[in-house]
Specification:
It is built from seven helices and 13 strands. It is of the alpha/beta class. It folds into two domains: 172 residues, no CATH class; 61 residues.
Amino acid sequence: MGVQNDIFFPEIRRCEERYGVRTTWYGEDKDILSESKDAMLLYYLNEIEEQRGELGSIKAPSMDQSVDSPFDNKLSEWSSSYMWFDADSKKVIIPYHSLQNETYENAVFYDYGMGKGLGFCSVYIDVEAFLEEKNSEDQDEWIDFCRTMETVIGIETKDLSWLERMTVGEAIYRIQSFYMIEPDIVYSDLQIDVNIKNFTDKAFFYLSMPEGNVIKAENALVTQIDDGFYLVEARKEHIVLTY
């Protein structure tokens, strides 16, 4: 507990507070944590709750990582063949890449690719790998890692400001909501008219416009995220985009 208290937890909490990150913490003993009488552990749990984070589980023998949700879910390392749902189990698959041994340039490259391709990106930190380091020279890798992590989050906060930093549980809910909506889209020379069935609260879409610009949005917020590329946040079931 001393190592986590002095090294790991403070730095991750710093990033949470500085950049508005909401973290999901995975562990093999999640089910017994709430019954612990350890003062330091209870402090950690209170801090996670205050930051609106969440606890996830690592389940043996598969070692699948999941969170409590009405929808079955697990983490899966990002690949070019990625799908949002497992074909056999129908679990929601949350893609990630590992940041531990990456330079910040590579990490930003991966996150930009996932963010602009999926509208989503996530990073997995394997703290156990750092716990196995025995000497001070190896432990310096954690310091280097923290610098990389903060650099990546800082760059993305500026360049991908439209991304919301949420827990895995919230991401699962939004993925399911996206697949339940049924948009009816009508294109014309001057506008795009969209009626959304099964609309709840809000919905998000990508809009690609190689030529022209969105000049007016009715019942929607439009954010330009790249040249000719927009994120559309629908706030009612009927939206109109004029260009």
